[in-house]
Structure to design on (492 residues):
C-alpha cells in the first residue's frame, strides 16, 4: 500500500473553509457522491482520504466535494445546464463532468501529475489536486479531465512553454476544442461571470487561464483573458 | 394444521424483513456515505494541519496578524456575501496598509518556494491593498529569475507555471496602480516588457497598452524589438466574444441523464 503525508494550512486562500461549511449538509454529500462518480469507490476514498470524515476540508474527499459545489453552483442561473448556445461552460460544465466521469478515485500518486484519465470513464485524482489547487482550479481540472474522454492532446508544447517546450501534451489550437480549451474556458467564464465568489479567486482564475492560453496551445489563440 | 403452518411462514417472513431492515438501517447510520462494492485502494494518507501559512516571528502578538490571516482566508469565500466580506477585510487593513505591507513582504520572503498558492495569496493581498510601498517588491519579484522546474512531469501543473502566475499577479498590481496615475508603476511595466518569460512579458505589454495612456502603443512599438511586436496584437477579450468550448452532444449513459434531486445552493 502506498502511503503519503501532507501538511495542510487550516486557513489559507484555497476557499476550502468556506465551501466546506456548505458541502457538509447531508443533502449535498448525497448528491455529490451519487452524481460525480464517487459511488462504488469507497475504498478509494478511505484510509485518510476522507470517507469517514467527509466534512473535514483538510482531507481530499471534502476538498473534492468543494470543487463539485463550485462546479454545480457558480453560474448565476445554475439550474440551466443545457448544452445549446448561448449557454456556456460555466453553466454546463457540471453536466459535462457528471456525464463523462463515472469512476472517480483518489490516490497518493507519484508526484508527477495531479490527475489522470483512463479508459472510458475512470479519473484518478492525486495529492496535488487536493492540496496545490484552489477550489476553482480543481473544477478546471475536472473539466479538463472530462474532456479527455472525447479528445486526447494532439500537439507538442510551443517553444518556451512552462508545461515542457517541445514535449507532447499540448492542443494544436483553441478551436481543436480539446481539454485545454475546456479548462481555460471554464476559468475564463468563472472570472467573467462566476457567482457567489470573490474578486481574488476570480483573479486567480484569470491568471491560471492566461497561463494555459499562453503555454498549452501549439499556436497561440491570439487573445487573452 | 395447514393454516397454522401458513401463519408461521408469514410471521417468519415478516420477522426476516424486519431484521433485514434493521440491519440496513444500522449500516446506513454508521457512515454518511452510501456505497456499493468497490475495488481495493492502494493508498493511505496522513495529514498534518497547521493553523495558517504564516510565521509572524517578528511580532507574534501584532493584532494585524489576525487581520491578515482573515483577509487571506476570505479570499476563498463563497456565498452571496463573499465579496462584501472580503472587501470588509481589506477595508480594515487599509488604514495600516504601510505596516501590513511590511509584514507581508517579510512573510513572503520567509515562505518555502513550494508554497506557491500561499505566496500568490500574499501578492494578491498586496495588489488589493495598492500601497505604493509594495512597488519595489513587485520590481524585485519580476527581476528574480524563475527557479527551475520542480515537477518531473510539468505537463499540467508546472512549478515554473506557478512562479509565472505569482509574477503576472504582481504585473496586475502594477497595471492597477498605473491606472491610478502612479508613474513609477507605469515605468516598471515598461521596464519588464523584455522579461525572459513570455507570459510575464505579454502581461506587461498588454497592461501598459491598457493603462499607459494615449501614446502607449507608440511608446511600446519603439521599445519592443521586432520579434516581440506581434504581442501588441494579442488582445484581452471578453469571454463572450471568443469561440466557445462546445460539448459533444453524445448519448449519455442511461444512469447519467439529468439527475433528480439537485438541492439549491446554500444561502
Amino acid at each position: 500500500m502506498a502511503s503519503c503525508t501532507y501538511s495542510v494550512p487550516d486557513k489559507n486562500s484555497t476557499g476550502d473553509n468556506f465551501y466546506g461549511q456548505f458541502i457538509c449538509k447531508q443533502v449535498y454529500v448525497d448528491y455529490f457522491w451519487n452524481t460525480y462518480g464517487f459511488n462504488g469507490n469507497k475504498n478509494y476514498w478511505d484510509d485518510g482520504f476522507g470517507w469517514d470524515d467527509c466534512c473535514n476540508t483538510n482531507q481530499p474527499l471534502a476538498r473534492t466535494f468543494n470543487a463539485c459545489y463550485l462546479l454545480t453552483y457558480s453560474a448565476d442561473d445554475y439550474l440551466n445546464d443545457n448544452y445549446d448556445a448561448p449557454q456556456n461552460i460555466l453553466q454546463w460544465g457540471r453536466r459535462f463532468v457528471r456525464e463523462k466521469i463515472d469512476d472517480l478515485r483518489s490516490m497518493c500518486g507519484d508526484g508527477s501529475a495531479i490527475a489522470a484519465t483512463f479508459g472510458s470513464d475512470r479519473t484518478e485524482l492525486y495529492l496535488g489536486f487536493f492540496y496545490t489547487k484552489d477550489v476553482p482550479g480543481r473544477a478546471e481540472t475536472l473539466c479538463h479531465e472530462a474532456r479527455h474522454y472525447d479528445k486526447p492532446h494532439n500537439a507538442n508544447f510551443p517553444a518556451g512553454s512552462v508545461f515542457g517546450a517541445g514535449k507532447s501534451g499540448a492542443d494544436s489550437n483553441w478551436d481543436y476544442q480539446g481539454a485545454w480549451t475546456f479548462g481555460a474556458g471554464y476559468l475564463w467564464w468563472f472570472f467573467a461571470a462566476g457567482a457567489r465568489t470573490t474578486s481574488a479567486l476570480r483573479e486567480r482564475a484569470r491568471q491560471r487561464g492566461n497561463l494555459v492560453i499562453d503555454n498549452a496551445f501549439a499556436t497561440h489563440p491570439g487573445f487573452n483573458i | 394444521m395447514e393454516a397454522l403452518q401458513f401463519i408461521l411462514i408469514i410471521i417468519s417472513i415478516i420477522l426476516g424483513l424486519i431484521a433485514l431492515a434493521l440491519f440496513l438501517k444500522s449500516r446506513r447510520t454508521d457512515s454518511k456515505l452510501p456505497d456499493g462494492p468497490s475495488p481495493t485502494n492502494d493508498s493511505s494518507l496522513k495529514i498534518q494541519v497547521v493553523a495558517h501559512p504564516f510565521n509572524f516571528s517578528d511580532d507574534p502578538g501584532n493584532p494585524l496578524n489576525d487581520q491578515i490571516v482573515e483577509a487571506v482566508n476570505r479570499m476563498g469565500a463563497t456565498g452571496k456575501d463573499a465579496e462584501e466580506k472580503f472587501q470588509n477585510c481589506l477595508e480594515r487593513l487599509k488604514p495600516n496598509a504601510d505596516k501590513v505591507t511590511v509584514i507581508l513582504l517579510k512573510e513572503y520572503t520567509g515562505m518555502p518556494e513550494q508554497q506557491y498558492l500561499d505566496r500568490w495569496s500574499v501578492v494578491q493581498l498586496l495588489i488589493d491593498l495598492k500601497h505604493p510601498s509594495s512597488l519595489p517588491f513587485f520590481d524585485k519579484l519580476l527581476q528574480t529569475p524563475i527557479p527551475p522546474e520542480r515537477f518531473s512531469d510539468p505537463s499540467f501543473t508546472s512549478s515554473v507555471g506557478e512562479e509565472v502566475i505569482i509574477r503576472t499577479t504582481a504585473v496586475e498590481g502594477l497595471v492597477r496602480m498605473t491606472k491610478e496615475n502612479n508613474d513609477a508603476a507605469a515605468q516598471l511595466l515598461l521596464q519588464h516588457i523584455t522579461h525572459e518569460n513570455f507570459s510575464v512579458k505579454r502581461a506587461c505589454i498588454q497592461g501598459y497598452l491598457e493603462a499607459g495612456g494615449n501614446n502607449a502603443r507608440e511608446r511600446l512599438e519603439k521599445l519592443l524589438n521586432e520579434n516581440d511586436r506581434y504581442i501588441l496584437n494579442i488582445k484581452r477579450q471578453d469571454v463572450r466574444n471568443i469561440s466557445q468550448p462546445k460539448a459533444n452532444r453524445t448519448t449519455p449513459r442511461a444512469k447519467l441523464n439529468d439527475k433528480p434531486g439537485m438541492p439549491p445552493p446554500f444561502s
